[in-house]
Design a protein that fits this description.
The complex is a heterodimer of chains A (169) and B (215).
Chain A lengths: L2 H13 L8 H11 L5 H13 L7 H23 L5 H10 L4 H29 L3 H16 L4 H14 L2
Helix pairs in contact in A: 1-2, 1-4, 3-4, 7-8
Chain B lengths: L16 H14 L4 H15 L5 H12 L5 H17 L2 H30 L3 H36 L1 H21 L3 H23 L8
Helix pairs in contact in B: 1-2, 1-5, 3-4, 4-5, 6-7, 7-8
Classes of the chains: A mainly alpha (169), B mainly alpha (215).
Chain lengths: 169, 215
């Protein structure tokens, strides 16, 4: 694997997303499908770790970077996700001068909407990798339900899942 | 440019670059709840406690960060840090120190967890646990997708029927197209962006009669 290329791929994926996990579909496609530098399993692991650790949701890429290329990968990932937000400096000035920018707003919204659609499909594909059966679907639905209730911390949900996985074969 | 003139901080503690770093470091150490909680932390610290940012600036900056590339929270940090840094003498240093303060704790912990994880990953217990944790992660991921879709749908519903149909079409269309044709992700995203742009421009022109275009 090529560290520079990894950095550029994370950068590119992050440029066209405005959320922490918006870069997931592109990264999966680039790193797993196209190059085989990472496995779906590692992506799932990184996502889980990202859900558990503090800070912005985008840090799952840092975890992925570490799994793919050690400390170097992790640090390159951090820099890569910090660069696109710097564009807010020039864009902020442009927005301050233009009153009406339906084109830009429309583009961002359209892109953001498309991301959600693709993201959902990628998630379902990930489930396919572990195997779609009554057990996994049930776990997914229960986790979704517990998360939606907003009463159960994510950490607890994943801990419960882990315990379930170990205790119930 | 009134939009970029910072408000004079009416302040107990004047900002300095090191204090700025310290404030963000404190925020970073407490940011366990994700985006919304971190936003609240930033407000409590920089707006309420330190008075380095006004509520108006806070709201306006956050709105701008929704329509710029990259993680919204990081863009927000860049914007606030740059402005406060500018007051202290260096906007660039403000940006760097703010990002560093926010990310140092959480990045360190993330790497720590990942590193610890790799050491135990091979054990059968962990493997068994993962077989349940991964579906749970997928469930939470779908919840995240729903959380992302909701504000988009809400806005489009407020805009009217055409907008709602359009948004649903892009949502379903992007997912289905991606699933069926497996095109490069960026193609789907940019296509969605372009369609959104065209729709938005057409809508705007329909609302503004011909003679009243903004000069």
């Amino acid at each position: 694997m090529n560290s520079l290329e990894f950095f550029l791929l994370v950068l590119r994926a992050s440029l066209l997303s405005t959320s922490g996990t918006g870069n997931l579909p592109a990264l999966r496609s680039d790193l797993v499908a196209a190059r085989g530098w990472t496995t779906d399993h590692q992506i799932a692991e990184a996502l889980a770790i990202g859900q558990v650790s503090p800070g912005p949701s985008g840090l799952w890429v840092v975890s992925l970077g570490y799994l793919t290329d050690g400390m170097r990968g992790a640090l390159l990932a951090v820099v890569a996700i910090c660069l696109p937000p710097l564009l807010v400096i020039p864009l902020g000035r442009i927005y301050a001068r233009t009153k009406h920018h339906p084109a830009v707003e429309g583009f961002v919204r359209g892109l953001g909407t498309a991301v959600v659609g693709v993201f959902a499909v990628v998630m379902l594909n990930l489930l396919g990798k572990v195997g779609v059966n009554v057990r996994t679907v049930l776990i997914a639905l229960i986790a979704l339900g517990l998360g939606a209730s907003r009463r159960v911390p994510i950490l607890v949900i994943l801990a419960l899942a882990a315990a379930f996985g170990i205790l119930v074969r | 440019m009134s939009a970029d003139t910072p408000s004079t901080p009416s302040v107990l503690l004047p900002p300095t670059l090191w204090r700025l770093f310290g404030a963000w470091l404190l925020i970073g150490c407490q940011s366990f709840g994700g985006g919304a909680a971190t936003l609240a932390l930033i407000n409590r610290s920089l707006v309420e406690k330190l008075g380095w940012v006004s509520e108006e600036e806070f709201a306006r900056d956050w709105a701008i960060c929704q329509v710029t590339p990259g993680i919204n929270l990081l863009a927000f940090t860049v914007r606030l840090g740059g402005r406060i840094g500018g007051i202290c003498g260096s906007a660039a240093a403000g940006v760097v120190l703010s990002l560093l303060g926010l990310l140092l704790p959480s990045v360190a912990i993330t790497i720590g967890i990942t590193s610890a994880y790799t050491r135990i990953a091979a054990s059968p217990a962990v493997q068994s646990a993962l077989r349940a944790v991964i579906p749970a992660t997928v469930g939470l991921g779908l919840l995240t997708a729903w959380t992302m879709a909701r504000p988009l749908l809400k806005t489009s519903r407020q805009e009217g029927k055409a907008s709602t149909v359009f948004t649903l079409a892009i949502l379903a269309g992007a997912g289905i197209a991606f699933f069926v044709f497996q095109p490069p992700v960026l193609v789907v995203l940019i296509l969605g962006g372009v369609l959104g742009m065209v729709f938005s421009v057409i809508r705007a022109q329909r609302r503004e009669p011909e003679g009243e275009q903004t000069p």
